Amino acid sequence: MKPLVITVLLLTALTGLLVVLSRDPARQVFALAANGLMLGVLFFVLQAPDVAYSEIAVGTAVTPLLYLATLAALRINKKHP
Amino acid sequence: MNPGARLVIFLCALVITAPAAWRVMHSMPTFGAATSGYADTVNTLAPPLRHVSNMVAAVNFDIRGFDTLGEETMLLCAVVGAVMLLRGSRGEQEGDEAGLLAGRADIARSDATTLACRVGSTALLLFGTYVVLHGTVTPGGGFQGGVIASSALLLLYLGEGYRCWRDLIHSTVLAALEGIGALVFVAAAAWPLAQGHPALDNLLPLGKLKDLYSGGVIFLLNGAVGLAVTGSFGQLILEFLEETRSPEDESEPNEADT
Fold this sequence. Notes:
The complex is a heterodimer of chains A (about 80) and B (about 260).
Chain A: H1 3-21, H2 25-45, H3 49-76
Helix pairs in contact in A: 1-2, 2-3
Chain B: H1 3-27, H2 37-50, H3 55-63, H4 65-90, H5 111-133, H6 142-160, H7 162-168, H8 171-194, H9 217-242
Helix pairs in contact in B: 3-4, 3-9, 4-8, 4-9, 5-6, 6-7, 6-9, 8-9
């Protein structure tokens, strides 16, 4: 295995660990985005640019946004159950 | 069910599935192995038979195109379900402002932010279109390009703010994109059937290898999926961001809180 692949694999594991360890949902969303980005980089390093595109767009932009919007909606509408 | 019984069921399931899982894991290609039998076959057959240089597009839209038809329909159903669920409880009316947490200052965006987001979202939209159009030639394709193009909407929201964004983005346009994309895909599957060929048969002229138009029906389906994915993800983003606008009945007192 190339050193680059090992580094990116370790970084993916590290960011994944951060997702599990962060308890505040708002922080967790950004950890999730970082994990998505590292996964995208990993796919790119493993020569799968197709999957890297989708992973970076979905995992780093769209999914965290959906979570952030949900968290914001919950906090804004707390008074209006 | 008590934990003991659960553990017993888990152990039974483990005993049954573990040998199969073990065998599958050991017959998988080693980590980082660049080729497999299927990949070699596709790499050899697709360029002469379909005139495409992106094998992933050849597999997705031709060799296993029927699977993609299912995925496409699944995405459509998922987004329709999410929209019905959210809009059903919220109503179709539009609010005027983004919601704001009580006690948090409403800071206006700087011109630099707006400019950067406008430039960035235009570039993203262009790049997404490029990825869709060159799906048969270079890595990427309908799904990837569609997601990139719809994430341009996010930057637009960041730069313009809720009101302006809501004036720019129309749910009907997104729904039309989504519907047209899915319709083109279904039509491309049904048209050969009507002529007595298998569904999704590649009847269009194949074009030249490594040209922008190459692959016949692959190019068409790429574009259709690009439209559908842009519409679907745009619609999803719109519905979720609509949830964060300020509630209409702001003045209505709520006894439960006092």
